[in-house]
Structures are given as C-alpha cells and as structure tokens.
Amino acid sequence: MMVNTVPSTSLRDGRRPLPSTTATATATTAATASANGRSGLTLLELMLVVGLLLLLTLATLPFGSRFFQTNQHDAALGRIRGKLRKAQAYSMDRRLNSGWGICLQGRVVRLYADSCAAPTQQEDYDLPDSVEVTGLGDIWFTPLRGEPSSAVTVTITSPLSSQQITVNAAGGIY
Q1: Tell me: the pLDDT tens digits for 130-148?
Q2: pLDDT of residue 65
Q3: CA distance 96 to 53
Q4: 157 in a structural domain
Q5: Is 72 a domain residue?
Q6: 48 in a domain, yes or no?
Q7: Complete DSSP assignment for 100-152
C-alpha cells in the first residue's frame, strides 16, 4: 500500500492550486528597484499620462465653451428682465419719491431713479462681451401705476441664441 506524501492543499473540487508567481515577481521587482536606488515613473509613462490628459481637455473644450456662452446669455437675459421688474416695482412703491427706469449706455444696463443721464440713485450691470442688446433705449415707469413710457421689445443676442423681452403698454413684462 502506498502512502500519499503530498500535503492536502487541494481545492473543493479536487484540483490543486497553482503556485503564486505574481507575489514572488512583485517582491523581486521591488527589491531590485530599491537596491538600484530607482523608484517612480518612467518618462514614457509620464508622457502617456500627459498625452491622455491633453486629449481629454481638447475633447471637452468645445462643450465648455458652449456652456460658458449659454451661461452668459442666460445671465444677461435674467439680469435685464430683473432690472425691468425692479424699476417697475420701485416706481409703483414710489421709492425715493420718484419714478424709476432702465436704460442702456454703451455696454452698461442702468437701473436709475429720476433720469438716466443724471440719476439720484443707480445700479449698473456690465454686459458680457459675447452678448448684444438691441431695443433697450430709455424705459421709464410711472409712479404708482408702473406703466412704461413706451411699449418695447428688447432683444438679447449671443453667438448661440437670441431671445426677447417684451414690455407692453400696460406694464406687463414677459
């Protein structure tokens, strides 16, 4: 009768596990690298990482640019609409006992009390370079009733889109 001299390290299905060469190879590589005094990344690995990052940046740049322009357009639209409503509300409340208005002076949208040229109080908003505004002259709202000096349609245009704000004769802003 023969006696089995091999230790019983078999798997459940009866197969024996393979010897681990990965742990031995890793330990040998680490020992060799530390014995030579070298550790870290090679130039090729660094160039590969930098190249991949550059490729990702170039791929996402058009989307970032489009997002930035859309954000500037939407911000300008919201600010102008908000300033129109604020001027109307201030006039209806007779804030500072005067009428309020909004005007465009160069690239500045101005919310003012009394007159655009010589306001007693003002709030200025500088338009972004990528946004153009047409149709916004000098709109003044009557005290108490909040009716505009004239019905206007303001157009806000950017390279990506164009939207309008309408102020009707009754003072509706939409």
Answers
A1: 999 999 999 999 999 999 9
A2: 85
A3: 57
A4: yes
A5: yes
A6: no
A7: EEEEEETTEEEEEES-SSS-SEEEEEEPPTT-EEES--EEEE-TTT--BSS-E
**What's the order of all strands across the beta sheet hosting 108-113?**
121-126, 108-113, 100-105, 138-141
Length in residues, the chain: 174
Domain that holds residue 118: 67-167
Q: How many domains does the chain have?
A: 1
Instruction: Classify residue 162: in a domain, yes or no.
Output: yes
The tokens for 107 are 């690239």
Alpha carbons within 13 A on the beta-carbon side of 6 = 4
- Give the CATH number for residue 116: 3.55.40.10
Partner residues linked to 39 by β-bridges: none
Q: In what order do the strands lie in the sheet with 162-167?
A: 132-134, 152-157, 162-167
Whole-angstrom distance, CA of residue 84 vs CA of residue 8: 87
Per the listing, tokens 């005094």 go with 37
In terms of pTM, does the model score above 0.85? no
Residue in 143, 132, 139 with CA at minimum distance from that of residue 168: 139
pLDDT (0 to 100) of residue 61: 85
CA 19/CA 27 separation, integer angstroms: 15
